[in-house]
Amino acid sequence: MKNMSLNEVLNDNRYDKVKFMHFADAHIGHRQYNMKLRRDDIYMSFRTSIKECLDEDIDFAIFSGDLFHHKRVNARALRDAENGIDMLSEKGIPVIMIQGNHDSKLYKEDLTWIEYLHSKGKIVLLQGNFNDKGLVYKKHDTDNPGTNSGFIDFNDVRIFGLQYSGQRTKERLNVISDEINRVNKEYGEPKVTILIGHFGIEGHIPQINEGVSYNDLVQLEGLVDYLALGHIHKKYSHGDWIYNPGSLEAHNTREATWDLGYYISEIKPNGNLDVKHNLSKRRPFYRIEFSVDGCKNNDDVVKGLKNLIEEELKELKDLQDRKHYKSRGKKRNPIIDFRLEGLLQFSRSTLNINKLLEIIKQKTGAVKVQPNDKTESIESRRVLEDIENKASKIFDKNGQLNRKNLENTVFQMKIGEDSRYKGRENEISKLLMEIKINLLSDESIEKVIEDIRKKRREIFSSKVGTDENHKS
Predict the structure, then answer these.
(1) Per-residue model confidence as pLDDT tens digits over 56-80
(2) In the chain, where the domains are located
(3) Among the listed residues 239, 186, 192, the one whose alpha carbon sits nearest the alpha carbon of residue 217
(4) What does the mean pLDDT of the chain come to?
(5) Contacts of 459 (CB under 8 A, 6+ apart)
(6) Distances in Å between the alpha carbon of 21 and those of 3, 61, 89, 129, 249?
(7) pLDDT tens-place string over residues 302-322
(8) Is the C-alpha dihedral spanning 80, 82, 85, 87 positive or negative?
(9) How far apart (Å, rounded) are the C-alpha atoms in residues 191 and 225?
(10) Is the pLDDT of residue 401 over 60?
(11) Could you tell me the strand order of the sheet in which 192-198 lies?
(12) What is the CA radius of gyration of the chain?
């Protein structure tokens, strides 16, 4: 079947079983943390997954949306996508895909890059044609492909597409079954029906409620043999007909704990499917959590963190040794998610976060250390307690927070902690408020400094020249 034209591939009936690849959410062009390295990681995962599928001798590939990360695709991202697609097309393997929310807009304004690839014959883009009369699925015409098609027949396999539809997904799912039945009546019943969709199903990621329910898909069960989903980056399946492979690369630490990858499915002569999930090659993420409880100063934090990292290194190395985290058999340096927690017993101003990040980077070889400071300081706790005692000053009679009064209260509390400023809290607080307003108004630093000097002379006029602590 390899090295044939698309027409020859689609019309070739010599094969009694078919094997296909299903992947989604490549997000080519994504530069996580604004790093070129992460853009290259994402492309490597895309390319390596395709290469592994070629080794499996697949007959066609389906992609469930979000080939690109941005709607405005740059030249590098387009080249990377075409390079991967060409690996398949050069072997005579059709690439059939739909557009995800990152690939196109809900309201069409111009030709998208996915439509461009379709019109050039690089891929087959499937989507439903929705209008006032309902849904129409147009059969793919290899001689006159246009900018998209509705469905395509591959031997005894019929493939339909549903593009990203946002809040209209449920509404559109309600009319798909009738249109599939119409197509089957006109063109004959296929042995296997595949529907490619870019939407999520509720309940697979906590705190994320968007998506459809299984009840919204009941009318498709029995009509569709393989529902190939994308959009949700987590791998999941339901029954023996709904499959979501997950993204190819992790985009945060939570995703890094999931089984991300792609499916290889074989359609048996009797129409049954044998579906296998494969993990994609990607960069390892690792989380380091450190509590500052019990640390009396920054030196204690540094010492404690170094000891913790030594304990974590074995587990990190075990993670790096897993096959899908390696590149050409070599370990890949990780991305570290650094969580700092607990109650600071010392001033936050002496906590050197940059020093901690440098220690982690040196000891783990991380390409990136992403900090997340969740510590609470005793200073902050005391301020909050004092503010609670002064609630009448910062809330109006309706219980609404007055931001100006809150800032003034905090300033006066902090100023009052220095015995030199006793009795002058209100004047100095007003000065600080003026400084803040001037800085937010982009006043020149020189002008702000001059105003501070002038105000200090006014406030401390009785002490200027006698108290060294208050000289300008």
Answers:
(1) 999 999 999 999 998 888 899 999 9
(2) 6-279, 285-377, 390-470
(3) 239
(4) 86
(5) 424, 427, 428, 431
(6) 18, 5, 14, 25, 17
(7) 999 999 999 999 999 999 999
(8) negative
(9) 9
(10) no
(11) 151-154, 157-162, 192-198, 226-230, 242-244, 236-238
(12) 30
Please give the Cα distance from 375 to 429 (Å, whole number). Answer: 27
Q: Measured between alpha carbons, how far is residue 214 from residues 34, 91, 170, 235, 239 in Å?
A: 37, 37, 11, 16, 11
261 pLDDT above the threshold of 80: yes
Query: What pLDDT does 7 receive?
Result: 61
User: What is the C-alpha to C-alpha distance for residues 363 and 452, in angstroms, rounded to an integer?
Assistant: 45
For residue 131, which of 150, 146, 114 has the smallest C-alpha distance? 150
Q: Is the pTM of this model over 0.90?
A: no
Residue type, 188: G
Tell me, what's the pLDDT at 12?
60
Q: What are phi and psi of 376, to 5 degrees?
A: -120, 135
Closest CA to 231 of 217, 243, 219, 213: 243
Return the CATH number of the domain spanning residue range 6-279.
3.60.21.10
Concatenated DSSP letters of 285-334: EEEEEEE-TT--SHHHHHHHHHHHHHHHHHHHHHHHTSGGGEETTEE-PP
Contact 73, 115 (CB under 8 A): no
**Residue in the structure block whose two tokens are 């706790």:** 381
